[in-house]
Amino acid sequence: CLVLHPHPVAHHHLLPHCPAIIHHGGSGTTAAALAAGTPQVVCPVHFDQSFHAGRVEYLGLGAVLPRRTLFGAEAGKGDVAPAGAAAPAMTIDAAAAEAAGALR
């Protein structure tokens, strides 16, 4: 279920109620998801985000969705791959959910 809210919502109010979060890997969002114990799918775009994504995956707290999976060889040119191309990386397994939940 995708919920769109017309106003900003604080991470600490929202994330404890989410089964997972898909995000860019910024330090604030990554830390908020860790604090909430929410499993993550990280799609890094810039420098530090790749580091955060790698740590999330290494620690078993979620998965990394490489940008090229979404945008293919034309990354940055506005061509988006079919949604099905991203599906394998978007699966949060039970172990990742349990590991993330243990951080609460």
Walkthrough of the structure:
- The protein is mainly alpha-helical.
- It has a single domain, classed as Glycogen Phosphorylase B (Rossmann fold, 3-Layer(aba) Sandwich).
- Strands 1-2-3 form a three-stranded parallel sheet.
- It starts with 10 loop residues before the first helix and ends with a helix.
- The mean pLDDT is about 80.
Structural class: mainly alpha
| N→C terminal distance | 23 Å
SS summary, helix count: 5
Give the class-level CATH name.
Alpha Beta
Shape: globular
Radius of gyration: 14 Å
How are the strands of the largest sheet arranged? Answer: 1-2-3
Task: Summarize the entry for a quick read.
The protein is mainly alpha-helical and 104 residues long. The protein has helices at residues 11-14, 27-36, 47-58, 67-71, 94-101; strands at residues 21-23, 40-42, 62-64.
How is the topology of this model organized?
Blueprint: H1 11-14, E1 21-23, H2 27-36, E2 40-42, H3 47-58, E3 62-64, H4 67-71, H5 94-101
Parallel strand pairs: 1-2, 2-3
List keywords for this structure.
Rossmann fold; three-stranded parallel β-sheet; Glycosyltransferase_28; Erythromycin biosynthesis protein CIII-like C-terminal domain-containing protein
